[in-house]
Structure formats: C-alpha cells, structure tokens
Design goal:
With 337 residues, this protein is mostly helical. 53% of the residues lie in helices and 6% in strands.
Length: 337
C-alpha cells in the first residue's frame, strides 16, 4: 500500500493528537482537590522530602465524615463534672488499673526512676484514654484528621499539622495509613497520643531494638506517657490536687480563672482555704483554687503544677481531675489488696 504526502501529514496530526490526550499534563493541579489541600500537599512534600504524587495519593484517600465534626463540637469534656466523673471513676476502671499495675510492675518502676512520674498517674491516664488498651478508637484516622484539617476552620491549623505528623509517622513506621483506626480526633493507640506526640514522645519499654509500638505494646505506652508528662513539667513526688473542705465560707472571688498556680498555700490559708492535705505540704507551694461544682453546691480544690502537667495531655479541667481522682482510687484499691 502506498501513501501520498497529504495522507501522511493527516496521519501524523492524528497520532500527535492522540499522544497529547494520553500523556499526563505536567504541572496542572488536580481539579478535585481544594486550594487548601493543594497547598497542604506542596508544603508536606517540600518540608519532609516526600514525593508530591505520594502525598497527593494520601490526601485523595480522605473521606469527609460529618460525625467527626459533630463529635468535635460536643466534646465529652463539656459535660458537667458530676456526669463526667461518673463515667470514668468506676469500679471496673479502678480494679482494672490495679490489675494493670500488677501486670507491668517492672515497667512502672522503670518509668518512675527515669521520669519521676508515679504509677498511679500513668495508669489513670491510660485508663481514662483507652480503658487500658481495650478501647483505642473505631474512626478511620486519615478521615478524622483530614475532616478536621480541611473542614473544621476553628482548629484547621492544628489538625493540618497533626495530619502532616500522621503522614510522617505512617511512612516512617510502615503503618497502614488509609485504614488505621483511632479516636474521632485522630488520637492513636493505648495512650491515645496525637501523631505529633507519638513522633516526639514515644520511647521503648522493654524492647530497645524494635520500633516503638504504642498500639499493642503496653510497656512502650507506659514509658511514653511518663516521658510526655516529664516534658510537660511533672515534678517528682509533688502533689497534684487537694480537696478543700471548710466550715468557713470561701469567697467565690478567690476562685482562679484558670488552673495556673497563682498564690502560695500560706496565702490561701490566711483566707480560710486549707485542709489536712494542704497542711502537710510546704506553705510556699504554689497553687490555684478551682470549683468543680457550682455556686450553689461548690466543690473546691487547690491544684498544683502537676495538675497542669496532666492538662497538657488534655486541656480540660474535668479530664485532669478525673485522671487525678482515678489515680487516687487505684492507689487505695491496691493498698487494700
């Protein structure tokens, strides 16, 4: 078969057109992604030296979950202290904490020696966070972090950073990034660490060789919680909180606006704010007065620096008080066998 010049030119144009259509267009953004998502991809790729195509593929796997937004706007910590306390200070959690300490006694001793954090506090945090590893979350972590990073403006900046950290964590540890389960806020494993905390505070327990595993290794989890609290300002052998029961009327004006220690125990004692607990402490110890009740039925507590260290884990006063009271209950349960 022979071809004339016109036929060959026409065929060449057709081939060129087909080739142009079939080849990917380099440099053109994926139109299905928002501007925020595209910026995020470029930032992560540049900052962590991850191929842009790989980050894009991860972001494209995010599925928006409206239930996560609902959970975020109605947090459990928003309940009254009485309801919140009733959920966490329970017989199963108390007995479970005692048993947990028995199972991991050597690791708790190691954590105390290395970080100065007592076993009751670490146990209580793990008890509140995941019921000692039994409840680590049922939400898709990528969906949770992606939903909050790109669809929850009040905290978008925070969750975009956590999504970055999750990508780094998953690639570094070869985790199943698109299927891993956690909390509705993207918290992970036995201690429910956010990805940034996992990357910064996860340390090994008994096994110094294997990668730190906060999903199933309780020794790693215990040591990592201790490491976190030490960095948060935990003070070895210092108090967390003291209940204040007084026959004298305490002025509501003495209640602190936050939990940051503001005055000495001596200062509070001069204003009839004291108890057997506070009287056993150095009068120069700094504290803040909080009311866990209300004006009609107050429930006054003096809280110290270690209370604020717990709040670094979760910045809600209900959370920190639940951890403290659970730790006390576990201690009593252990002492009574």
């Amino acid at each position: 078969m022979t071809y004339n010049r016109a036929t060959l030119q026409k065929t060449s144009r057709i081939i060129a057109l087909i080739t142009a259509i079939s080849l990917p267009v380099i440099g053109v953004a994926n139109q299905s992604l928002t501007a925020n998502e595209q910026t995020f991809i470029q930032t992560v790729s540049k900052q962590y030296k991850i191929p842009q195509a790989q980050v894009t593929d991860i972001v494209e796997h995010i599925h928006y979950n409206p239930d996560i937004i609902k959970k975020m706007t109605t947090p459990y910590e928003g309940l009254s202290w009485q309801k919140y306390r009733a959920h966490f200070i329970t017989t199963p959690r108390i007995h479970g904490g005692h048993f947990y300490q028995t199972q991991h006694a050597n690791t708790f001793q190691q954590a105390y020696q290395q970080f100065g954090v007592d076993q009751n506090t670490i146990t209580a945090i793990i008890g509140v966070e995941s019921f000692y590893g039994k409840h680590t979350g049922s939400y898709n972590v990528l969906d949770a972090l992606g939903t909050l990073a790109f669809h929850y403006p009040p905290r978008a900046k925070f969750f975009q950073k956590e999504l970055q950290q999750y990508i780094v964590l998953s690639l570094k540890n070869d985790l199943p990034i698109t299927t891993l389960k956690g909390s509705y806020a993207g918290a992970l494993g036995i201690p429910q660490f956010m990805p940034s905390s996992y990357n910064h505070y996860a340390v090994p327990g008994k096994s110094q060789q294997a990668p730190v595993n906060l999903f199933t290794d309780h020794d790693d989890a215990i040591m990592s919680v201790g490491n976190f609290l030490k960095d948060a300002g935990w003070q070895r052998n210092q108090p967390v909180a003291c209940s204040i029961t007084s026959d004298k009327t305490i002025s509501p004006t003495l209640v602190s606006k936050n939990t940051k220690p503001q005055h000495t125990l001596a200062w509070y004692a001069q204003r009839q704010v004291s108890s057997a607990c506070t009287q056993s402490l150095n009068p120069n110890t700094m504290a803040a007065l909080v009311n866990m009740g209300n004006t009609a039925t107050p429930d006054y507590w003096l809280v110290f620096k270690n209370f604020n260290a717990i709040m670094r884990y979760n910045p809600r006063i209900n959370y920190a008080m639940a951890v403290f009271q659970l730790s006390q209950a576990i201690n009593v349960d252990r002492q009574h066998g």
